[in-house]
């Protein structure tokens, strides 16, 4: 696969014809699925940024690194999902505490207002 990537890189493009070997057609499909090449015209392909990375690191190393990144991303999403579920479980408790705090604040404001009114009327 590395040789095929290098071949595409040297030519800047790769043209698929009717006499293109079957193994190269299979490699092209694989590279398209992995977003390493893109179709630019009917039968013409060129490397993407990922394709140049795969060329630099070697296809097998790039594939391993890509899989590690996908695994980390999946793990990150599952952790975020768990945290979101915990937050949803805690939401009613937090809402109740906020309402109790609001009630206490209103009561204290009324007490302060009454004390202020009493102070004004006593003078």
What is the overall number of helices?
4
Tell me the Rg in angstroms.
32 Å
Helix content: over 70%
Structural class from helices and strands? Answer: mainly alpha
Strand content: 5-15%
Mean pLDDT across the residues is: 85
Q: In order across it, which strands form the biggest sheet?
A: 1-3-2
In short:
With 123 residues, the protein is mainly alpha-helical. It has four helices and three strands; from the N terminus they run H-E-H-E-E-H-H. A hairpin with a 2-residue loop joins strand 2 and strand 3 (44-47).
Chain-wise SSE layout:
Blueprint: H1 2-11, E1 14-15, H2 22-33, E2 37-41, E3 44-47, H3 49-57, H4 59-122
Antiparallel strand pairs: 1-3, 2-3
